[in-house]
Amino acid sequence: MGCLEALKPEIILSQASFKDAREYIKKNVREYHEVEPGYKIHDVHIIGVAPLYIGVEGEDLIFPYTKPCHGTFVVKVAGHEEIARLRARKK
Amino acid sequence: MTEKTALILLGCPQVPVQTSMALYLMHGLKEHGIRPVVAGTVAARKLMEVADPGRHYLEEMADLDDMIDEITGKRRDFDLCFVFIHNDSGVAYAGTMAYISQARLYALLFGEHAEDLAKEIEFPCEVVAAKAVHNPMPLKRKLDEVMQWAVSKR
Fold this sequence. Notes:
Number of domains of chain B: 1
Structural class of chain A: alpha+beta
Order of helices and strands of chain A: EHEEEEEEH
Strand order of the largest sheet of chain A: 1-7-6-5-2
CATH topology of chain B: Rossmann fold
Helix content of chain B: 40-55%
Largest interface: A-B, 21 and 28 residues
Order of helices and strands of chain B: EHEHEHEHEHEH
Radius of gyration of chain B: 14 Å
Radius of gyration of chain A: 12 Å
Number of helices of chain B: 6
Helix content of chain A: 10-25%
Shape of chain B: globular
CATH architecture of chain B: 3-Layer(aba) Sandwich
Oligomer: heterodimer
Structural class of chain B: alpha/beta
Number of domains of chain A: 1
Strand order of the largest sheet of chain B: 3-2-1-4-5-6
């Protein structure tokens, strides 16, 4: 469960805080969506304190990924059907 | 009557007091008839297994991500949840638990930056913070204070 490596992520920001990751996405990704803690993308749960943001850039998703020993990373992975699911949540 | 349960969530075991305090907490919970379940990283779980080979305190242990999946999927929840925190990731996990679980949440902050990390906690929980790195006693004393209250509430 939760194997990010299988998604072949591009690391955009590494070993940051969850707040840094939140700010990075908000400032640098034009389209972003707020999700609740624990929201699942592919097989990965988003860990952090609300508000949490997931960005959409073309066909990719940009989101925070927290590792217990190494802090929070901002990663980019192929979005596939997750983009439509994310956009469908928009009020 | 349904058995009361407590989730003990262990992060990176880099700071020595974590394993000792987790075993102490499990002892206290069991003394009060509350069944502890541990979720943590592989290393954190291995430290627990080696420290308690006779399984006097350890019963059930689970992978951290698997447990998050169980709780977000509403397949499982607990009466109490204790999150061990010594870094920013620990705060992130506690914030997630505050959102996904109905358990009464306790944030146990320790390590060099316990007090600074405590200021980062902006979600509903009971904060127990002590600058404890090698010596668990400062955190033990604070935990003893809240344990009486914790076990009487649920």
